[in-house]
Amino acid sequence: MNTISDKKDKRSKIDLAASFLSRADGLREKNLYKEAAAIYLNAILLNRKDVNSYYGLGLCYKYLKNYPKAIKNLEYAADLKPDFYEAYYELGICHLLEGIPCGAIKNFVQAIQINPENPNAILQLGVSHELCDEADMALMIYQKLIENSPNFIKAYEHKSTLLMKMDRFDEACGVLVKLIKIQPDYAPAYLGIATCLDKSGKQPEAQRYYRKFLQKKPLDVQAQFAKSRLEKLKSVKRRNNYLSLV
Predict the structure, then answer these.
(1) Do residues 156 and 146 touch, judged by C-beta distance below 8 A?
(2) CA-to-CA distance for 239 and 246, rounded, in angstroms?
(3) What is the DSSP letter of 217?
(4) CB 3.0–4.6 Å: which of 24, 114, 130, 167 could bond 138 by disulfide?
(5) Contacts of 6 (CB under 8 A, 6+ apart)
(6) Is 191 part of a structural domain of the chain?
(7) How far apart (Å, rounded) are the C-alpha atoms in residues 210 and 194?
(8) Is the pLDDT of residue 80 over 70?
(9) Total domain count for the chain?
(10) Would you say residue 226 lies in a domain?
């Protein structure tokens, strides 16, 4: 039977663990992951059921690129709190970073079941299927995400990029055109459309979109590529015009 002293001792340990947790969170927010990890461990030694300390420690190991330890601690957090969306989401991310995309799927599914309104887990579920060579499933997920969250730009980006990898340039172009209608100033979409048209042999239209991209982002890292393609397409056009006159 616990004495009053035992209860006070237990209470003081929990309070000290909470103090360690607060300090560790502060260090993690300053990107001091090694220092934060050591203090999270102190908190866990005092309170083995401290969900947030396991979660914080998992994040520290994630940023330190120790993904096996990150996964282990995030799993502890998820076991202690089965409705912990962030723990399942980060578990999925860590599996992806560790190169285990098929292992990430179940965690993203669990995160979606907990919070079906958050598009990030749905997007990463699509990425996981894509990396597992399940392109059709990934495309279906991206499309569903576009339908349910029409302003979520990343869904359009991922769908169009995957379609381009599959040489389905006309479909990719269509996705990017829809993206521009939603966000007309989104410059990468113009470059994507130009590339799709270029690959499809529609050079005059491609030139127009390369110019639109350069108008919006003249100093972008991709600007030199766009300029080079424009010059190449112009030279081809001049050569063809010359040959037609001969």
Answers:
(1) yes
(2) 11
(3) -
(4) 130
(5) none
(6) yes
(7) 6
(8) yes
(9) 1
(10) yes
Tell me, what's the pLDDT at 239?
Answer: 53
Beta strand extents in 125-229 (DSSP E only): none
What domain range is 221 assigned to?
Answer: 169-246
Contact 172, 163 (CB under 8 A): yes
Residue recorded with tokens 């330190």: 64
Continuous H helices in the chain: 4-29, 33-46, 51-63, 67-80, 85-97, 101-114, 119-131, 135-148, 153-165, 169-182, 187-199, 203-216, 223-245
Q: Read off the DSSP letter of residue 186.
A: -
* Cβ neighbours of 26 (radius 10 Å): 12
Per the domain annotation, does 220 fall within a domain?
yes
The mean per-residue pLDDT over the stretch 60-89 comes to: 98
Identify whether 223 is part of a domain: yes
What are the phi and psi torsion angles at 182 (to 5°)?
-80, -40
Residues 27-47 have pLDDT tens digits of 999 999 999 999 999 999 999
